[in-house]
Amino acid sequence: MTALARGQVWRVQLATKSRAVVIVESDAALDALPGTAVCMMVDETRGAPDTVVTIPVTDPVRGAAVAVDLTALTDKRLAAGELLGTLDTEAMDRISAALRVTLDLT
Fold first, then answer.
1. Adjacent-strand bridge partners of 54
2. Is the pLDDT of residue 1 over 80?
3. Which family does the entry's similarity section mention (predicted)?
4. Full-prediction pTM beyond 0.85?
5. Mean local confidence (pLDDT), 50-67
6. Phi, psi at 37, each rounded to 5°
7. Which of the four CATH numbers 1.10.860.10, 2.60.120.10, 2.30.30.110, 3.40.250.10 does domain 8-102 have?
């Protein structure tokens, strides 16, 4: 299995549909606490507006990462999916800012 890392985008099966998610957990936490990863859902409907808690992404998937839609997924669930790629630094900086606002860490 590919080592999990912050910023990776995976397509995983969740309940009845496939969803794109981006790993938002720090690499240090992923190493220290293996087995799960905190992920942010990506809305691929293109219906989510660009706000302080939604971050438009275009590569490796088109949509918007939604900071209020977090979940923890097992490494087995991620490995059963497909690694689509990794978000660029700019997108991850915006995701970090959105998480700080969402979680009141400003």
1. 51, 66
2. no
3. Belongs to the PemK/MazF family.
4. yes
5. 92
6. -140, 135
7. 2.30.30.110
